[in-house]
Amino acid sequence: MRTLVLNAGYEPLAVVSFKRALVLVMNDKATVIEHVEAEPVWGARRTYERPAVIILTRYVRVPGARSIPVTRRGVLRRDASRCGYCGKSAATIDHVLPRSRGGADTWENLIACCLRCNNVKGDRTPQEMGWELRISPSAPRGGQWTVRGAERADPRWEPYLELAA
Predict the structure, then answer these.
(1) Is residue 47 part of a domain?
(2) Same domain, 123 and 152
(3) Using 50, 70 and 90 to split pLDDT, how confident is the model at 80?
(4) What is the pLDDT of residue 87?
(5) Where does the HNH nuclease domain start and stop, copy by copy (predicted)?
């Protein structure tokens, strides 16, 4: 079981284990907003509902710009595992401007690519090949990207994740 943790201002912070969420609730650091319809947990002094979404009782300051690190997995996720050139299923990533020509490992320069297109393109740019990008690569935005662990979201979390988008 996993639990969505909200800041005191209803901003999604993270997804934690059920046990960690219960400890926060037992220590009065959080309150249960949504719970799972299951057997309650018995504590020494009282019973607790099984939390699906909790909110912290005190506001936690989050560093300003949460930049999302560039990863192969992230690029494939952003592009829905579809090739940016032909639209088929993608298993690799490609530098739009090749690294040998100064292309960086940035969200704007990386695109999901199928193995065939990646091998054919090689060390050239899409313009040199006469190809057009099917999407415009950019850094991802939205609540599910900034909240670690929200990829496999519980349906009860969606209203809270939409607030962060």
Answers:
(1) yes
(2) no
(3) confident
(4) 93
(5) 70-119
At residue 52, what is the residue type?
Answer: A
Same domain, 9 and 57: yes
Residue span of the structural domain in which 151 resides: 2-64+142-164
Signed CA dihedral, 37, 43, 47, 53: sign only: negative
Say what the pLDDT of residue 50 is.
85
The overall longest dimension of the chain from CA atoms, in Å, is 71
Q: Is pTM, for the whole model, over 0.85? A: no
Torsion of CA 67, 71, 77, 82, to 10 degrees: 130
Cβ neighbours, 10 Å, residue 127: 10
Neighbouring C-beta atoms of residue 12, cutoff 10 Å: 23
Residue 134 located in a structural domain: no
* Within a domain: 136: no
List, for residues 127-145, the tens digit of each pLDDT value.
999 999 998 998 886 555 5
Both 82 and 118 in one domain: the answer is yes
Contacts of residues 64-70 at CB distance under 8 Å and 24 or more positions apart, as own/partner, are 66/146, 67/139, 68/107, 68/139, 68/140, 68/145, 68/146, 70/105, 70/106, 70/107, 70/110
Instruction: Grade residue 54 by pLDDT with cuts at 50, 70 and 90.
Output: very high
What confidence tier does 61 reach under pLDDT thresholds 50, 70, 90?
A: confident
Domain membership flag for residue 137: no
Angle at 31 between CA 56 and CA 41, to 5 degrees: 130
